[in-house]
Structure formats: structure tokens, C-alpha cells
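BUG: 3D viewer hangs when loading the predicted structure for this chain

Environment: internal workstation, default settings.
Expected: structure renders.
Actual: progress bar stalls at 90%.

Input used:
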Amino acid sequence: MKKKEGILQSSVLTAVFAIVFLTAKGCSADVLGMIGIGYGFPLALTEVRYDDSTGGSGYGYYSSPRLKGCLLVSIGFISTDHFGFILEAFDHKYSEALHRKSSAADVIIDSYDQSFAYLGFALEYRLFKGLQRYWNPYINVGAFISLNVFNPYDLGSPEYPQTSCLKVALGTKIRVTGPFYLNPRVSYISGSQSLLFQAGLELII
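C-alpha cells produced before the viewer hung:
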């Protein structure tokens, strides 16, 4: 699994450098401001277990996250050519579930809500030039860091999710009216090993 994750992350980094190069070539295009908001629901690709404990009485437990909703906000610059440079932040919710190991069934002995926030930069490449089309597919790739690293009370990196992550998204901008665009997309997030199905609204002026 780690080998596959390494290959995927290397591919994302390669895509980032490629889009940076293409962005540099297309920087002569007109640039517009963009602000957006979106919400989505994730699908975990792997089962995550941690905080494994046997306990003195033999009633050990393990923890597993159950992903919930994710809110994303973004602000950046979109060129009238193919490219965009965007600052993104997203808050990912999950339920922390404690499972009893001594039971043959999957018994949850406790559950409570958690969330983690990421902040980072993303580069976007749209398939078609211009912003007047009614739809325009794009790829968005970025690197993010968890805001937990700035918590003075944090005793170390959390066991879940990863402190830093890569994100790659495929979506399309659908012009609704004037400067408003619908933005459905699906994203892979390495920090939580999940696919995020998301829809949002963007204002480009």
C-alpha cells in the first residue's frame, strides 16, 4: 500500500510541476479574481485503525475514523487562458469510533465527532480557454498542511489524518449566469486516503 501511495504522490507532484511550467508560459493572459465555497462527502479508500490497546482487563479497543462532510473555501486568480492559482482551505469532519476488540461483532463502545483543517495552494488547468463557455472541464492539484501543526497544545503529529497531504481533483465549471459558476468535482485526498465528491459555487470577476 505504501508503494502505491508513493507512486500516486509522485504522479501528483509531477502534475504540479507541469502545470507550474504551463502557467508560466501562459502568464500574459488577463487575470480575474475568484472566490468559491463548496461542500462534499468523502468515501474512504482504506480502513484505518490506530490507538490499539489491550488494556489491563483484556477488554482492549481500537479507534477508527468514519468520514463525514467536508467544507471547502477558496480564493485565487483565474486567467482567461487555461490556468488558475488558488489558495484553498478545507475542514474535514469525521466520527472517532472506539471498537471493542474482545467482541466477535463490531461493537462500538464510544463515538465522538472530530474535525481537521488543511490550508494550501492549488494549481488549476482548464481544458478550454476563456470563461464564457457553459462548461469547462479542469484538473486541480495542490499541496496542503494540517493546521494542527500550529496548535501549541498538540504533543505531536496526530495519528489521523496525515500532517501534510496532496490533493488532485477533476471537475468542470458550469456557467449559471454572469460571473457565477457551479463547480462539481471529485478529489483524491492523500491525508485521509479518501475520495471527496463535492459541489460548490464560484464567483469569478
